[in-house]
Amino acid sequence: MFGSSSKNKEKTRQFIAVTQASEAAASKLLKENVSSFNPAALAALFDKYKDPEEDAILLEGTEALCADLEVDPTDVATLVLAYHLKCENMCEFSRKGWLAGWTELQCDNLPAMKAAVARMRDELNDPDSAKKIYLFTFNFAKQSNQKTLSLESAIAFWDLLLAGKYTHLDLWKQFLEETHGKSITKDTWALFWDFVETAKDDFSNHDDDGAWPLLIDNFVVYAREKLGLAPAANDDDEVEQSLQQVAGLYQAWRQHLANPAMPEQDLRRHANDVRDILRNIAADLDELDETINILFGLARPPPAPFPSLSQVVQANPARFKLDRPQIEERKQFVADSRRIVEDMRTNINNPAAARMGGQQGVRDNLFGGQGKKKVDKFGRTEDEYKVSNQRFVEREQEQQQLLMDQQDQQIEEVAVTVGNLREIARVMGDELDDQTRLLGEVETQVDTTQNRLQDGMKRMQDFIRANSDTKQQWCIAILIVVLVILLILVLSF
Predict the structure, then answer these.
(1) pLDDT tens for residues 434-468?
(2) Helix, strand, coil: what percent of the chain each, to 5?
(3) Which end of the chain is more exposed for a tag (fewer CB within 10 A), N or C?
(4) Secondary structure of residue 247 in the 3-state scheme
């Protein structure tokens, strides 16, 4: 048994050291594979191709690996290899994914890897494996910081994975480039595989009410028009049946509403049932309106790049053997149905008004019933209320105009004040310039005076040094004494 010898334990230890897997996982993987597998050799191969600064195989390493495996980087086999090695981004193999993937494939050397890659194209012939690889491609191909896949990348990978497998692939790409022009969501990417697997070439089994993204439903309409196929049956009858159903529930709710003994809880339950059906009918009407716009607008070129199909004008109904009156009839049906739905929704959301017969019932109740001159309890007619309301509106408008005039005047006064402040600022700027000039002149004079003082001090020091001899000092002293004596003699006479 595996694990009974020290050699197998050593292999388990090496595998754990290389892959950082748990002991149980390492033992399981090694038990399931031949004993000749060498994890250290696999790790050495990773180190051969990995980037010098990062612990991952990046663009240059991927190119070198593909060259050694003798496979084109753009070959679909490279995509399958990325799936097995659990790549999260294009041209980037992590150490963990490399070791785990090649271990599962039992490849620890280039010849074994080359043989495995050569067999990988066959995996796309298996429906389960092909779908797993297709779903993996979305996250692999998109930018790591984005939630959607760019249209350019999506088309490239659809070409890689679905070329020769889907009859209308070129028409699908043309539809996206002409009418969509935006990135592809993960939901659309995933469900397009199911659509390709189930849709017939003439789209006769396509369910417009199925859980398909709107983009796929619009493609079916587009493809039918381009291929000259009959459009799908419209939803008029279905919506009309739903309206009849909800009308019965709505009338039952009105009856319950008029019954004071009806518990409030039951009344709310009936109202919620009606709301749910109204919500579904509103969604059906939106889809019907969208379909009408799509069916009759494809013949005219779009006015702007990549518009939505609902924005294309109705231009060529004859291609579907439908005349203008039929188009207008369907549009009128949608408009009428919307009004019915809105009236029911308004009353459901306002039971008090519904008890009086709806919004019109509220008005009739306010003015004392129907008649040529409806008078309320204060003796005023509806016309008098209208006149009064009109006068009130006019007074309010005059007041608003007066306020606007006052605001305009205040704005003018503010503008004058701003102008005065600007002039004051200009004068202050000129004064500051003059003061700066005067300060410069004073600084110059101070420097000149300082230089003169330094010269005077230097001369004084030279004089003091010149008269520092002792003999000269005695002579000066004797002369001073003689001078004093002469002054005394002069003053005594």
Answers:
(1) 898 899 888 888 888 888 888 888 887 776 676 66
(2) 75, 0, 25
(3) C
(4) helix
User: Higher-confidence residue: 473 or 401?
Assistant: 401
Mean of the per-residue pLDDT values for the chain?
Answer: 78
**Intrachain domains 1-125 and 236-366 with the same fold:** no
C-alpha 153/C-alpha 183 separation (Å) is 9
Longest alpha-carbon distance in the chain:
157
Helix runs in 259-295, H state only? 264-295
Helical segments of 299-381, H only: 324-349, 351-355, 358-366
Question: Residues 401-418: pLDDT tens digits?
Answer: 888 888 888 898 898 899
Residue 455, SS3 per DSSP: helix
By the 10 Å C-beta count (0-12 exposed, 13-18 middle, 19+ buried), 297 is classed as: buried
Q: At how many degrees (to 10) do helices 186-198 and 214-227 cross?
A: 50
Domain ranges of the chain: 1-125, 147-231, 236-366, 373-438
* Spacing of C-alpha 388 from chain mean position: 51
Between the alpha carbon of residue 312 and those of residues 178, 224, 234, 385, the distances in Å are 12, 16, 19, 46
Class at the top of the CATH hierarchy for domain 147-231: mainly alpha
Please name the residues in contact with 161: beta carbons below 8 A apart, sequence gap of 6 or more: 76, 79, 124, 130, 133, 134, 137
- CA dist., res. 168 & res. 290, Å (int): 23
In words, the CATH class of domain 1-125 is mainly alpha
State the pTM of this model. Answer: 0.47
